[in-house]
Amino acid sequence: MNPCRKAEKEDLDDILRGESLLFSDPWSRKALEECLDSPVFESFVCTDGKSILGYLITSTAAGEAEILRIASFPEHRRKGVAASLLRFFLQRAPKNQTEAVFLEVRESNLAARNLYEKIGFRPSGLRCGYYSKPREDAVLYQLLIKKEDPKI
Ligand SMILES: CC(C)(COP(=O)(O)OP(=O)(O)OC[C@H]1O[C@@H](n2cnc3c(N)ncnc32)[C@H](O)[C@@H]1OP(=O)(O)O)[C@@H](O)C(=O)NCCC(=O)NCCS
User: Going by CA atoms, what residue is nearest to atom 26 of ligand 1?
Assistant: First the structure.
């Protein structure tokens, strides 16, 4: 597992770079700052000690967590960065009384869907036309947290 930790203010420039590079609806600096300051959101980074290799942003309320963002930088793909971030988050989940984790993903995003399924997420529904830029359906995934889950 690659080393992961909670994101800090100093990571914002790298996360912002990831947003503009990797997403068609990039989050603003203000939105990312609000995530760092809010008790509802948690942000994590995977690092090699010098650079940020990838990041994960979640929100949790009433025992239910949502994966809002997950990305690894193109030069660090397929090295377990995103899987490490998800596992890092999921290992903390029982302590935080999180019982289920949800997310949505573009139907065509097979890299992300394979990642989620490898970690143990299961498809739970479809949201037609959910995404814009370009318009596309979202596949919903969920993972129920068990206290001692060997997959996590
Ligand atoms: C999806 C993404 C986060 C995967 O990051 P990553 O660090 O390369 O993923 P990992 O190395 O941890 O891969 C874990 C597993 O995911 C799956 N996977 C990852 N990339 C894949 C690809 N290009 N094609 C098929 N499966 C892939 C594989 O099952 C992989 O396991 P394996 O390497 O043992 O076969 C990355 O491609 C990315 O940042 N994409 C752009 C942003 C994005 O789409 N985020 C998700 C939005 S919902």
Answer: 111
Residue 145 has pLDDT above 70, yes or no: yes
Rounded Cα distance between 71 and 106, Å, is: 14
Question: Is the pLDDT score of 143 beyond 70?
Answer: yes
Task: Collect all residues with Cβ–Cβ distance below 8 Å to 47 and sequence separation of at least 6.
Answer: 2, 3, 4, 5, 53
Alpha carbon of 118 to ligand 1 centroid (Å): 10
pLDDT in tens, 18-58: 999 999 999 999 999 999 999 999 999 999 999 999 999 99
| Closest residue CA from atom 23 of ligand 1 | 111
> Could you tell me if the CB of 120 is within 6 A of ligand 1?
no
Topology (CATH level 3) of domain 4-144: Aminopeptidase (3.40.630)
